[in-house]
Structure formats: structure tokens, C-alpha cells
Amino acid sequence: MELKELKDKVKEIQSELKEKEIKEKNASPLGIAMKMGTEFVAAVFVASFIGFYVDKWLETTPVFIIIFFIIGSVAGIFNVVRSSKMINKD
Fold first, then answer.
1. What distance in Å separates the CA atoms of residue 90 and residue 83, rounded to the nearest whole number?
2. What is the pTM of this model?
3. Pick from 38, 43, 33: which is nearest to 70 by CA?
């Protein structure tokens, strides 16, 4: 009985993934560009925020803000490149 339930669940998840894939193929170029821009800005913002609080906690100059800003920028660029590769894969 559990095996049948597990198979049904796997089929359900696979169909959801196929629906999501179809929606992404039909996405507008503007929507895709906005998604990539948001991913980049979010990565930079979150990393800078962490750097700010690490600096505040350690009572240092803005060393960690700069370090985490660079880390966030690199992570944002990787996210955009990864998304671009997925789009161009089709």
C-alpha cells in the first residue's frame, strides 16, 4: 500500500515539474530579465546586510561589508549566468 502511494506522489511531483517547465518556456523576455535582475540585487543586498551586522558585532570598520558585498556580487553573477544557461539550453 505504501509503495502505491509513493508512486502516486512521484507521478504528481513529475507532472508539477512539467507544468512549471512549460510555464517557464512561455515566459516573456521582460519577465525573465526582471527575474535575473531581482536575483542579482537580492544576493548583493543579503550579503551586504550580513556584512553590516558582522561589522557591527565585531566593532570593526566596514571591512566585512566590503568583503560580503564582493561575495554577494559574485553569487549574483553566478545566479544570472546559471539562469541564462538554463534559458539557452532550450
1. 12
2. 0.67
3. 43
Phi, psi of 60 (to 5 degrees): -110, 170
Q: Fill in the DSSP letter of residue 27.
A: -
Contacts of 68 (CB under 8 A, 6+ apart): 47, 48, 50, 51, 54
pLDDT digits (tens, 9 = 90+) for 69-83: 999 999 999 999 988
From the centroid of its chain, how far is CA 77? 11
DSSP string computed for 39-63: HHHHHHHHHHHHHHHHHHHHT--TH
> What single letter denotes the amino acid at residue 87?
I
Going from N- to C-terminal start, the domains of the chain cover 28-89
